[in-house]
Write a structure and sequence with these properties.
Blueprint: E1 17-21, H1 25-36, E2 40-45, H2 50-53, E3 58-61, H3 69-72, E4 77-80, H4 85-97, E5 101-103, E6 117-120, E7 125-128, H5 135-149, H6 152-171, H7 175-186, H8 189-196, H9 200-212
Parallel strand pairs: 1-2, 1-4, 2-3, 4-5
Antiparallel strand pairs: 6-7
Helix pairs in contact: 6-7, 6-9, 8-9
Enzyme class: oxidoreductase
GO molecular function: ferrochelatase activity; precorrin-2 dehydrogenase activity
Protein name: precorrin-2 dehydrogenase
Length: 214
């Protein structure tokens, strides 16, 4: 089997039509998550979890075995979350043949996109996948990554570098020159000391010194 290569991407789900097939634990988790991020979600199943029944997600009571291309073609993203492995694969194959994005949680190899575990706040998004090998390990990797990202030093550095980017856009017109300055400032020991310790004004002053010295 040819090894798949996945391109990581963060996407605005607003107005995307998402079909979740299966109203159990996995289908519920996927449906609620996609709904939270702005997608227009519909779930087709004979049974629905209480969480789905309590939500404002569109629910269609129907046997998943009756779903065909005429239904799938109406959606942009399909998630096959039934407890029938063969049916999940069949429906995902139909979706892919229609050039739709499809995730089959019961068989990652059958999917053409992965739903990673992730962390999100106002400043950053972090996503991890082990490509179906182990969600437990993926969660541990994410936890350790978050602990680094949320350290005061890293948050201070992020804030300072954002201010540097704003400063460079005002002072340097050429994008290639800005790029060079951006790395030079980041690697400067004085700048990084000030930035990581939350001395943002001193960090920016040092950045201006580096720019003006050229």
């Amino acid at each position: 089997m040819v090894k798949k290569e996945y391109y990581p991407i963060f996407i605005d789900l607003s107005n995307f039509r998402v079909l979740v097939i299966g109203g159990g634990k996995v289908g519920t988790k996927r449906a609620l998550a996609f709904k939270k991020y702005g997608a227009n979600v519909c779930v087709i199943s004979l049974d629905f979890s209480q969480d789905l029944l309590n939500s404002d997600i569109r629910l269609i009571k129907e046997d998943a075995n009756k779903i065909d291309a005429s239904i799938i073609e109406k959606y942009d993203i399909i998630l096959t979350c039934t407890n029938n492995f063969e049916l999940n694969e069949k429906l995902c194959n139909i979706a892919k043949n229609l050039r739709k994005l499809c995730n089959n949680p019961t068989n990652p190899e059958n999917s053409n996109f992965i739903v990673p575990i992730f962390y999100s706040d106002n400043d950053m998004e972090i996503a991890i996948t082990t490509k179906g090998k182990s969600s437990i390990v993926a969660k541990e990797i994410l936890s350790k990554t978050i602990s680094i990202a949320n350290s005061p030093e890293m948050r201070n550095l992020l804030s300072a570098m954002y201010d540097v980017k704003t400063l460079l856009k005002k002072k340097v017109a050429d994008p290639s020159v800005r790029y060079s300055f951006y790395h030079k400032i980041y690697n400067d020991e004085k700048f990084k000391y000030y930035a990581t310790n939350g001395l943002i004004e001193k960090a920016l002053h040092r950045a201006e010194e580096i720019i003006n010295d050229q």
